[in-house]
Known about the structure:
CATH superfamily: HUPs
Structural class: alpha/beta
CATH class: Alpha Beta
Order of helices and strands: EHEHEHEHHEHH
Number of domains: 1
Radius of gyration: 17 Å
CATH architecture: 3-Layer(aba) Sandwich
Helix content: 25-40%
Amino acid sequence: xxxxxxxxxxxGLDSTTCMALARAEGFDAYAMSFAYGQRHSIELxxxxxxxxxxxxxxxxxxxxxxxxxGGSALTSDQAVPKGRDIDESIPVTYVPARNTIxxxxxxxxxxxxxxxxxxxxxxxxxxxxxPDCRPEYIAAFEAMANLATKAAxxxxxxxxxxxxxxxLSKGQIIRKGLELGVDYRLTHSCYDPSPEGLACGECDxxxxxxxxxxxxxxxxxVEYK
Length: 225
C-alpha cells in the first residue's frame, strides 16, 4: 500500500527534485503550490502545467496575498538584487514567514489526507541566507506540528518534515534529480523573469542555479535573456 506525502511544489528546481525524491521513497506525492502575490508568477503557470508530468497524484494551488503585508522584493515593486555576492546576509527577496505559512497549509492538508509526511526543498548550503531554511527551524516546526494537531495528539501518527536537499550543494541536487529522471526544462527558478518568462540570469536564484549546472558540467536547459 502506497503512502501519502504532501510536497511543497513551486515548480522550481529544488521542489521538483524534492518531488522526485519523495516518489522514489514510495510516496504518493500530493503537490501544494502557492499564489502569494509573487512577481515571478510564471512559476505557477509551470507548476500547474507540469505537476502531473513530474508525478503529482494531486495538485493543490492555494491563493493568499502576501503583498498586503509586503516586506519583500518578491511581493512589491522593490528591485530584485542582481549580480550580488551571495553570502549569509538576509537579502530583500526574503518573504516574511513564508515557509511557516506554507508548512502550516501543508500540515492542514496532510492531516485531512491522513498523511504523516511533508516534503520541503529547503537548502542550508547553496541558498540566499533565509532563516526559514535552516535545520533548527525545520526541527522546531516539526515539534510544533506534533503538538498542534488532532491526529498527533490522539496518537494516530507523528508528523515528519522531510528536507532531503538541506545539506546538498546545488550541483549535488541536480545530480540526484538527473539520476531520478527529472527534466529540468520543466522547472523555473528566476525571481525576476522577462514578460515572456525568460530567466534573468542575474538574481540570486539564477546565479545559484547556473552555479549548480556548472558544477555538474552541463548546460542549464531553460532559456535566459
